[in-house]
Amino acid sequence: MTEFLAFRGPDAQHVWIDGAVGFGHALLKTTDESEDERQPSNLNGEVWIVADARIDARQELIAELKSHGQGVATDAPDVELILRSYSVWGEGCVEHLLGDFAFGIWDAPQQRLFCARDHIGVKPFYYASLGPCVIFSNTLDCVRLHPSVSDRLNDTAIADFLLFNLNQDKATTTFADIQRLPPAHCATWSESGLRLRRYWTLPIDEPIYYRRHEDYADRFKELLRNAVGDRIRTNRVGIFMSGGLDSTTLAASAHSLLSARSGDSGVCAFTTSYQGYDQEGEYAGLVAKSLGIPIRFQGSPDRVDPKWYYSTFHTPEPIPYPASLAADMADFREMASYSRVALYGEGPDNALRYEWRSYIGYLVRHKRLKRLLYDLCSHAVVHRRVPFLSSIPGIIRRWQPKRDLDLAPPFPDWFNPDFENSLQLRTRWEQLWCDPHFTHLVRPRGYASFELPVWQGIFEAFDAAVTGAQLEVRHPFLDLRLLRFMLAVPALPWCRSKYLLRRAMRGVLPEPVLRRPKAPVLRDLHEERVMECGLPLLEPTCNLDRYVDTERLVRSSIRSPASFWVDFRTRTLNYWLRNNQHVEWQPLQEETEWNALTSAK
Fold first, then answer.
1. pLDDT of res. 592
2. Is residue 220 a contact partner of residue 477, using CB atoms and an 8 Å limit?
3. CA dihedral sign, ordered 323, 325, 326, 330
4. How would DSSP label each residue in 449-498?
5. Helices in 191-344 by DSSP H: which ranges?
6. I want to staple 113 with a disulfide (CB 3.0 to 4.6 A). Which of 189, 324, 546, 574 is the partner?
C-alpha cells in the first residue's frame, strides 16, 4: 500500500510496524521544513503519527507549545508540531491547529488511534472500519488495496452522481466499505469502538465596523499576506490565473512575498484561454506584464477528446467531465514541472456574496438606523447608486420568487424503477433542491455555501489521485482567519462587485482589471464542444442496468441542454464502471500508457 502511494510521494517511502499496528507514508516535499522530514514519525517511541499536513501560523503555535514545556525548534516539520500538540492537549490538539491536514496518531499507552481532518476539508481522508480492522489513507484507491475491503458500491452515492454530479453525503464514498471523515471531524478508535466528533463549526460573527474605509483594505491585505505566506514556504509557486480579480490578487500577493527572497524565487501564472472566445488571456497577460511574472497559456478546443468514451483512464470515483481528463492531466503535469505548489483563487465569490437585503434587515431589526444611513451613503458614493433601486423592477415582476427546485434540471425518467423506488430518489431530489436552512442572519447564503458538498468535489479534482501530478493545490482565500473576515465585512459597500478586493488592490493591479465588471458566464466552450460531439453510443456494462433502464434511456430524446447533461451522466457512470476494476499497483503499465498518450498528443 505504501509503494502504491509513491506516485504522490516520490521523495521517500517508509513503513513502521508494531504488532497489529502499521503506518506507511510517501513523502512529497513542498516546504522548506519538509527537507528533513521523515514519516512515520514519533517523539518517544510510544506515540506515532502519519500525516498529509501543512500547519499555518507556525510561530504562534510554536510559542504556545514552548509555554507548555515543549522544546520545539523554529524549523521543525509540520508533522512534529501536530505530534507535540497532541502530547500537550491530547484529542483537543485540533482546536489549536490551523492549516490543511489529515493525520492519524497511534497512542500505544492509551491503545488508541486518533485521526483528524482539517476544518474546510482540503485534505482528503478515507477509512474502512471493518470489525477489528481499521484502514485509513488520504488516497481512496490505497484503501481499496487492502484485502478486507470489498468493491461493493454505495447505491446512494451512485444515485447522487446521476442526479447532482456529486455525492451529497460528505461522510460516504462511492464504495460501501469506505467512508470519508467529514471536514472538521476527528475519529477515535479504541477498545470502546469508534467515536466520531465534530470539533469546529464556522463561527457566526457580528459585522465588523472600522472608522476608516482604508482600515478594511489594510486588514484584508494583512490577512491575505499571512494566508499566502503560510502557503508558499517554498521558492517557487504556480498560480491558476484567469483574468478575474480573485486569482490576480493571489498572484500579486505571492509575487510581493517571493520577490523579497533569493533570485531563484518566482511566480508563474498558468491561464486557460481559448483564442477568439473570451478575454481571459488578454486580462491575465496584462496582469503578468504589470507584475513582471511569466505566464503560460493552456487550453484549446482540442482538449475535449471526441473519443474519450473509449479511453481507459481510471479515477477513484466518477467525475462529471471525463471528456477533457487527458488534457487536464497534461496541464497539471506541466504546472508540477515548474513547482510542486500552486495557488487557486476560489472563495471570494461565496464569502463576499452581495446580500444587501439581509444586511439591511439586520440593521433595521437592531434599530441601527444611523449605521444604515451611513452605509447607504457610503454605497452611493462608492458605487454611484442606491443599493436597492436597480432591484425594484425585478422585485415587482417577481412577487413570488422562484424556488431552487423550479430552476433544477428535469428529474430523469430513465432510472431503473426498482432502484428509484428503493431509495425514494424523487423525494431525495426534491429535498436537496429546496432552499437550505439558513442560520446566518446577515450573510445567509454566503455562509451556508461553505457547508455544501461541492467544495469536496473541487478539492478532490485537484488531488494527485485524479490529476496524476505531484502538485499540491492550496487555497489562500479559505484560510480561516481571512474567510471569517470576509464573511464579517458589511455587505454595503464592500460586497458589491467584490469592492473589498478592488479597494485593496488599488495601485497593485492594472486599472482595466480593477474596473472589469463581474459578468456571468454565458457560454462554456468545453460544454459546447462536448455537446457538438453528442452522446456516445451506449454500450452498457454488466452493472449499469442496476441503476438505469437502458432501453428507456436509449428511447429518450434530448429536450434541452439541461436534459443533455442529465443523460450525459449515464455515459459518464458507464465509463467509470467499465474502468473500475479492482485497483492493483502497476506502475510500469501506467507509465507506458501515459507515454503513449503524450506521444499521441
1. 41
2. no
3. positive
4. HTTSTHHHHHHHHTSHHHH-SS-EEE-GGG-HHHHHHHHHS-HHHHTGGG
5. 213-231, 245-258, 280-291, 325-338
6. 189
Are the C-beta atoms of 229 and 98 separated by less than 8 Å? no
* Average pLDDT for the chain: 89
Q: Mind listing the pLDDT tens digit for each residue in 77-116?
A: 999 999 999 999 999 999 999 999 999 999 999 999 999 9
CB 549 within 8 A of CB 414: yes
* C-alpha cell of residue 238: 504556480
Rounded Cα gap, residues 183 and 245, in angstroms: 28
Model-level pTM greater than 0.85? yes
Among residues 291, 280, 278, which one has the least CA distance to residue 241?
280
* Rounded CA separation 442/422 (Å): 40
Residue pointed to by grid coordinates 434511456: 553
List phi, psi (to 5°) of 398.
Answer: -120, 75
- Work out the pLDDT band at 433, boundaries 50, 70, 90: confident
Task: Name the packing angle between helices 425-433 and 155-164 (round to 10°).
Answer: 50
Owner of C-alpha cell 462511492: 174
**Which secondary structure element, helix H or strand E, spans residue 99, and what is its range?**
strand 99-107
Q: Which of 37, 49, 27, 28 is nearest to 77 (CA)?
A: 37
- The mean pLDDT of 433-445, rounded to a whole number, is 84
DSSP structure class, residue 261: S
Task: Name the one residue in this structure whose C-alpha cell is 463549526.
Answer: 201
> What is the rounded CA–CA span in Å between residue 523 and residue 527?
8
Q: Which residues pair with 104 in a beta bridge?
A: 50, 115
Q: Are 99 and 118 spatial neighbours (Cβ–Cβ below 8 Å)?
A: yes
Strand ordering across the sheet containing 266-272? 295-298, 266-272, 236-240, 341-343, 472-474
- CB burial of 480-502 (b: ≥16 within 10 Å; e: otherwise) equals bebbbbbbbbbbbbbbbbbbbbb
The residue to which cell 485537484 is assigned: 462
CA–CA distance, 483 with 464 (Å, rounded to integer): 25
Distance CA 126, CA 137 (A): 5
Name the residue among 38, 41, 92, 37 with its Cα closest to residue 64: 92
Contacts (Cβ under 8 Å, ≥6 apart) of 190: 110, 111, 112, 113
CA distances from 12 to 9, 42, 404 (A): 7, 17, 49
Chain Cα centroid distance, residue 321 = 16
Which residues are CB-contacts of 115 (< 8 A; sequence separation ≥ 6)? Answer: 102, 103, 104, 105, 125, 127, 136, 181, 186, 187, 188
All domains in the chain, ordered by first residue: 3-198 (3.60.20.10), 213-351+449-515 (3.40.50.620), 402-440+538-601 (no CATH)
Residue 599 to residue 310: CA distance in whole angstroms: 18
End-to-end CA distance of the chain: 32
Question: CA-CA distance, 23 to 144, in Å (whole number)?
Answer: 16
Q: How many residues does the chain have?
A: 601
d(CA 419, CA 77): 49
Q: Which residues contact 196 (CB under 8 A, 6 or more apart)?
A: 181, 185, 186, 187
For β-strands 236-240 and 266-272, DSSP reports them as: parallel
From start to end of 442-495, where are the E strands? Answer: 472-474
- Dihedral angle of Cα 332, 334, 337, 340, to the nearest 10 degrees: -20
